[in-house]
Write a structure and sequence with these properties.
With 145 residues, the chain is of the alpha+beta class. The protein has a three-stranded antiparallel β-sheet, covered by helices on one side. Strands 1-2 form a two-stranded parallel ribbon. β4 and β5 form a beta hairpin.
């Protein structure tokens, strides 16, 4: 039988997945949108093995056609106005969720949120979209064989 902390971790992961799935179901409804930026390097990291990575890349290709979904990929050789630091999500410019190794931090102070909005905008300007982004994804799919 798993240790209590393992069970708690599984429960926490399942709750997180359920919450993300529920949020994702809202994208495209009532004008809601989601703008995602990924570094090109993330397309090459084989976390979970080749088959898992292939599934993730196929999912990204499909997602580029979803209503309300915008995917930008920052090419590995792009000139950056700002160095990316840690992952974060901005929700309606009212909340920023900062992803750390141990947890997520919620930022609600308007001045701090403005810093994240500005950082996202800098990174967004270095990203490619549409067919150019799909081309980067297809290149990595081809590399998987």
């Amino acid at each position: 039988m798993p240790h209590a902390s393992v069970q708690a971790r599984r429960s926490s992961i399942e709750a997180g997945v359920a919450a993300r799935t529920a949020r994702a179901a809202l994208i495209g409804r009532d004008g809601r949108s989601c703008h995602v930026l990924l570094g090109e390097q993330s397309l090459r990291r084989r976390l979970g093995g080749v088959e898992v990575m292939r599934g993730q890349l196929v999912h990204l290709l499909e997602a580029t056609g979803w209503k309300g979904w915008q995917l930008g990929i920052v090419p590995a050789r792009a000139e950056l106005a700002r160095l990316p630091t840690h992952g974060f999500n901005i929700y309606d410019e009212d909340l920023v969720s900062v992803e750390t190794v141990a947890s997520a931090l919620d930022v609600t102070e308007p001045a701090e949120i403005a810093v994240y909005v500005k950082a996202f905008d800098w990174l967004r300007r270095s990203a490619v979209y549409g067919e150019e982004a799909r081309g980067l994804i297809r290149t990595e799919l081809d590399a998987l064989g």
